[in-house]
Amino acid sequence: MERLSRRSFVKIAGAATGAAALAAAPPIARAAVGEQGAQPTDPTARVPEEPVVAYVRDVERGEVTVTAGTAEHTYRDRALVQRLLRAAGRKGVR
Amino acid sequence: MSSHREAPAISQDPVADNADTYAFVSPDDPSTVTIITNYVPLEGPPGGPNFFEFGDDVLYSIYVDNDGDALPEIEYQFRFRTTLQNEDTFLYNTGPIGSLTDPNWNKRQLYSVSVVRSSGRDSDDGHGGAKVLGKNLACPPCNIGPRSTPDYDSLAAAAVHHLPSGETVFAGQRNDGFFVDLGAIFDLGDIREIQNLHLIPTPAGTSVDPLKTLNIHAIAIKVPIALLTRDGSVPSDPAAAKAILGIWGGASRRKVQVRDGYETRGSGPWVQVSRLGNPLFNEVIVPVGEKDRWNSVDPIDDVGFEKYVNQPELAKLLPVLYPGAFPNLAAYSKNRADLHAILLTGIPGGIVPGFQNFTGPKPADMLRLNVAVPPTTSNPNALGVVGGDLAGFPNGRRVFDDVVSIELKAVAGATIPLVDPSYTVDGAVGAVSSYLTPGAGRYQAAFPYLGTPHDGFDTPSS
Prior knowledge:
The complex is a heterodimer.
Chain A: H1 6-23, H2 27-33, E1 53-58, E2 63-68, E3 71-76, H3 78-89
Antiparallel strand pairs in A: 1-2, 2-3
Chain B: E1 20-25, E2 32-43, E3 58-65, E4 74-84, E5 107-117, E6 131-138, H1 152-158, E7 161-162, E8 168-175, H2 182-185, E9 215-224, E10 244-260, E11 263-276, H3 281-285, H4 288-296, H5 306-310, H6 313-321, H7 327-331, H8 337-345, E12 367-370, H9 403-414
Antiparallel strand pairs in B: 1-2, 2-9, 3-4, 3-10, 4-5, 5-6, 7-8, 8-9, 10-11, 10-12
């Protein structure tokens, strides 16, 4: 993984929101359907004025919470959790 | 007190700290209700050059429950925005401030007011669907001194805004109307006048009022009663359920704050960090390990705090701190149905002649205002209902109500006979009091009812 700037992390976080949009339906229903890997970053996606934040809520359950605007959704996405954990543990990431 | 720095987390966040909430039928405009929520407690008037202000990143809310379900049917929202006229000076003002648009006034706050109706917990996040009632409304500056704010009352008067929807609003610095001998009460429950009876006795003294030289930031709104009641009426029968409004204030912050250099931006839903209905509820009733949680939840969640009202810690402490003074209170082991009614359900009809503010059995900490009780305009009694004045606390709360005396007396047993006639009130209850009478200037007769804030040049005086 390349060294990430804050802006590129925002884009990745935005992609996580995109994955959520694809899944549609409320988060609980989404979690019940099954897991889905993280979606590739769309470089053309508009960057929101406010930060879009994704944080690992529960490693064991593979849950990620995404905040965007005044909304908050929690998804079960083990692949994204693993990517975030790998990113968090990588030296030089800031 | 009454909720100044009352919980560990909010004590670190003054701009979001809801220190007092008031709600009363406006004495000079009895077709309206005035609601005031105060923030930024214990402001020292000389605190420049960045004088006190509201938080631009805080959502300030006033909630009204008009059907007794402990959920808000009406929420007024206030959002603030700070502007700088000149970034190249360290000064708050570069000359005398003669008006709210004076170019000499450098650092200003503007705000918007919105209303959400039927915004109970079940509709989105409770903060959506807001209708904007007014925007770019000016706050007054802080009261600095005779050179900077030579005619402060004119500035404050200009900051009273009449909205097209019928409400009148004000947001800005005022004199803190709350009074208590802070230094004594937090020195192991001391009351100076009877401290010779204290477990650690010292000669009897005289109570002091440390808040009498401090300011606060008030958000005040005067609303036609018909805009608040469940059916749009103006009730005249105090016995009618529709005459009762449950009222509380709250402040919320975004769930996530991202600090990037010197900028901080928010993300996610609004999360409540402070609330206040009845004075002193979180301060005195809720134990310190629960206070932050209490601030984060809503009145409808207060069933979890009911036990602290039924068996209040302070009622157990008084007989210990004043040995032999409260024998009947010490022996009373029943749940405190009197406090439960006053603080959590409202007082049912038939207990206090001509009065009720019962909202139903659902326990919830809210101010409960019976809007059919007319304001007392001649010699109001600061002891409110306890003093025979049905227009005062716990029928809502007026700015001058002596809530410390009322609640101390109630906790000490004064109101037990209302629900348990077999109980004999201890003689010492008569000596339990704030022993304070606010001076002239603490309040004013017209909206926003809290007096002119102290200016930093003259306060404190040498």
